Fold this protein.
Amino acid sequence: MEEKPQNGGSFCLGGLVAGVREVHESGRTKEMEWRQAQIRGLIRMLTEEEDAVFDALHEDLGKHRVESFRDEVGNLVKSFRNTLQNLKKWADTPLISFPCNAMVVPEPIGVVLIFSCWNLPLGLALEPLSGALAAGNAVVLKPSELAPSTAAFLAANLPKYLDAKAVKIVQGGPEVGEGLMEHRWDKVLFTGNARVGRIIMTKAAKHLTPVALELGSKCPCIVDRINSKWECQVAVNRIVGAKWSTCAGQACIAIDYILVEEQFAPILIELLVSTLERFFTKPEYMARILNEKHFDRLANLLADHRVASSIVHGGGANRKTLTIEPTILLDPPLDSDIMTEEIFGPLLPIITVKKTEDCLAFLKPKPKPLAIYAFTKDEKLKQRIIAETSSGCVTFNDAIVQYGLDTVPFGGIGASGFGQYHGKYTFELFSHRKAVIKRSLWVEFMFRYPPWDEYRMRMLRRAFRFDYVSLVLGLLGLRQHDFKF
Amino acid sequence: MAARGGVGVEADVAALRAQFAAGRTRGAEFALKNLKKWMKPQKVSASLMTFPSTAMVTAEPLGVVLVISAWNYPFSIAAGNAVVLKPSEVAPATSSLLAELLPQYVDSTCIKVVEGGVAETTALLEQKWDKIFYTGNGKIGRIVMASAAKHLTPVVLELGGKCPVVVDSNVDLHVTAKRIAAGKWGCNNGQACISPDFIITTKSFAPKLLEALGKVLEKFYGDEPLRSSDLSRIVNSNHFNRLKKLMDDENVSDKIVFGGQRDEHQLKIAPTIFMDVPLDSGIMKEEIFGPLLPIITVDKIHESFALINSMTKPLAAYLFTKDSKLQEQYEAGISAGGMLVNDTVVHLTNQYLPFGGVGESGIGAYHGSFSFEAFSHKKAVLVRGFAGEAAARYPPYSTAKLKILRGVLKGNLGSMIQAILGFPRGK
């Protein structure tokens, strides 16, 4: 895909960054009314320009409007409303302790840079943007150039609905991203792959810019034996939805592969196939592969003949239309690329184990994923999964839906990244929690000051132990001796 | 290491032992008392959208953590992880004390002490960690973060800064002077990241403040401060020479209004106050980290804000005033890791407050539950059942489904009921 020409040169970037910083320092972005106005602006934009959004997402990724609404537009508006409702509460200063007046005051972190990814090009840009604005920051957004229609939509519309001096969009390719990282930011949020994540963090280190990295991973889905036919069907509906109806599997929290007991695998495959046929009656119901590069990457995963021979359904691909059929594989070799790299596409390996509990041992040495999914009614197994695995999140009996839940943090751990957002977590991510204590000048403890002696030492010990009684007695000249801790 | 007098060393180690004991117990006891509470999974509301479901956030350890501590307050606390602690080599006595004592009191298979200098630290940084906690200066902080980037390791950096003290005329002068002196010279003789670095006050008030500080210093350290065992020494000759250079700068040396004595043999510098050094002098550009205290005067106290904001954000910002309006303005107008009004340094001891920097003064925070948070991963757990299957989520897509989804995402109860009941039926 053709890269959009960058916004001027590095001089323009310097001017842009300085300009945004100036706006932030003027104090305008800190005002509550300003923050609320930005969020309302975002809601209005998505409501008034909904058709334009659907068109852009269709152009970029072939997404059906219902998918676009479900995963991006609708989810965003809901999230914005939640932010509006709670903003005052999040920004309020909680009184933490007394007797001296102590508080934690959230203040805007300053000027924020957001890099968004191409697969949820609206959601991954606007969700963090709304939180950064809610926290009172000025923001520069660099949307992925690989979803150019959405990037163009944002560049054209955000200035209309938001404070155009405090929110800037910079379009362009990797060199623009690198140019932006030459500057100091108060926080950078990057969504993308680990390779670029490393570059971002290394550049950030030069300025001590704090970063949050939302990276990829292979999200496993454990499927336990489910006896009820109906429940089994529900589980399969959700698996099919999570694998193929979200950007054709090109999502960081899509199910990457399944782990299931070998005896149950054939039943599962049969249900998957029948459900696929029921759901995807028309090709337009599944998004297409982003571009030729990703198409070839996915095709190569299947090129390995050991992998190709494990295909039990699908496998068809059309480079012209950038479509790959929903493909199911049974036990491809664990050392093949399809089982070592993040798939990010409509290929679903099923790995069989002797019994479901074996999944825990299977997952232990693997890099920590963004999400672990498990379809099971076994309470003990659920507890073991929570306690014995590590991941950004764990979702039982569904997949992907945690993305839309504003009350839980969204983010990775280990190889899948660090830093969390969504809901109030976005607000916190882009805030600085300033500790503020106010002391009075008339309560004085002499034992704080030199010259040092045993009396002072004793009194300090008591103070640190919160031993108020001994403290008072000591001040009155009583209780000379203490027990050692 | 320069030779030093016996009394000085004893005082150092004894003071540090006391600090260690007090600090360890305080922080650790607080942690012990509250640990169960912090470890409990937090139930959160699951939205009607995922009905029926329950959601919670549970804290899990990150894994293996590297803690690199600085030399002035060499002890920090971690929770739930396996830890490798690399104490500063600049405080060698403390470093070996820690290496000797810690394994006797904690599980030495999970908590290791590695001593050494640059080479050892570099080697440690090559490894992959689940988190790195570094206390020290910005230069090394950058190196730590760049090394961490290779493994995508999150970091907490507790760095330094020039902690300003704004002193209004509306104060109790004696208490103010005492608290500034205690924070500046009582804490390792100014060698602490949250030591007051410099003072800003009005031209008219400066002489009074100076006089009060002088009186207090005499009380604390006598009239021969270099001989006082209560005055910590400078940690090593490198830092001694660095401070000497700041003092001897030709634009600065003539601004000394109190103190100025030093003893290279003992590595001691007396509390020294300067009046109105040039803002572009070394002593005003770098973090002092020593017993030198510049006083900068302004015409009106509000001018101090612009001066502070022209510098990088400090770890702590202090203000002495009884004027509540000025307090509010300071809090709103200045950004720092933490702020303390009418005292210095003690916010460090409040286990309920996050302690950490912002901007150049650092990334992340700790103390109390914030330490626990810094070294934990908040894992979201969502539990759904099989009921409430919404056909509207899945293809084949239709306008009817879109309608229901719109309603659901709006929180419309009618739509939600329809969705849960499986409308549109038969698709």
About this structure: The longest strand of chain B covers residues 53-61.
